[in-house]
Automatic annotation (TrEMBL):
<dbReference type="InterPro" id="IPR016084">
    <property type="entry name" value="Haem_Oase-like_multi-hlx"/>
</dbReference>
<feature type="domain" description="Thiaminase-2/PQQC">
    <location>
        <begin position="18"/>
        <end position="139"/>
    </location>
</feature>
<dbReference type="InterPro" id="IPR004305">
    <property type="entry name" value="Thiaminase-2/PQQC"/>
</dbReference>
<dbReference type="InterPro" id="IPR039068">
    <property type="entry name" value="PqqC-like"/>
</dbReference>
<keyword id="KW-0560">Oxidoreductase</keyword>
<protein>
    <submittedName>
        <fullName>TenA family transcriptional regulator</fullName>
    </submittedName>
</protein>
<dbReference type="Pfam" id="PF03070">
    <property type="entry name" value="TENA_THI-4"/>
</dbReference>
């Protein structure tokens, strides 16, 4: 089934932007078993930066939620996300690539990572809760789809153990919270043409930043 995220709320067809991410050269290389160790290490370091910010983003979503029902829906994702601090930590993947805890501690965001990170805070500052939720949810939804594509070849073509790449299949646990719960919340709160336009522009900008993030990772030698 072709990938989509809340297409009924968008004023533009963003299928091309979604496909540009899902078929990005980085992920094509991963699936073909051709991604370099440098690219995989850069992905681990840069995405770990995003994962660390994810906790703050989730807290901001709850803090700015418009009502108690929205807060309850958003909190449902906290428990499945806790796994990424333990068995699902991206640092297990990094360790398999030779990265150390010091490497992660000293990592700085490269341009694509910085742009994607700031995009979420910009959505909140510029548009408030609705574009902020749309931005975070769109990013997580398409990354869940990427994890479905990347998980099997990382085991089968690179020889990583299931424990080393647990980060990827464990994103299955977020599907209900993002693709069902948060999508339904967006539909409930998106009431006017102006709301639809704000959501469309937030999702569109997020996809552009996602692509830039993977451009930066792919550029690793």
């Amino acid at each position: 089934m072709p990938y989509s995220f809340v297409p009924d709320l968008l004023n533009e067809d963003l299928t091309a932007q979604q496909q540009a991410i899902l078929t990005h050269p980085l992920w094509q290389a991963v699936q073909a078993g051709e991604a370099t160790p440098a690219q995989l290490r850069r992905f681990a370091l840069q995405d770990d930066w995003l994962v660390r910010h994810s906790k703050q983003l989730e807290a901001l979503l709850v803090a700015h939620a418009p009502d108690e029902d929205a807060r309850r829906e958003l909190l449902k994702k906290w428990e499945p996300k806790a796994v990424f601090s333990g068995e699902g930590s991206l640092r297990h993947f990094g360790a398999a690539l030779g990265l150390t805890e010091q490497d992660f501690a000293e990592a700085e965001p490269l341009p694509g990572c910085a742009a994607l990170t700031m995009n979420f805070y910009y959505a909140l500052e510029r548009g408030g809760f609705l574009p902020f939720l749309a931005s975070v949810s769109a990013s997580e939804s398409i990354f869940i789809a990427l994890c479905d594509l990347a998980g099997p070849p990382l085991r089968e073509k690179y020889g990583f153990t299931p424990a080393q790449v647990a980060f990827f299949p464990l994103h299955d646990g977020l599907k209900a919270g993002v693709n069902t719960g948060e999508a339904a919340l967006l539909r409930r709160l998106c009431r006017t043409p102006e709301d639809r336009e704000r959501v469309t522009q937030a999702v569109k900008l997020t996809y552009e930043c996602e692509r830039l993030f993977y451009d930066t990772v792919y550029a690793a030698p």
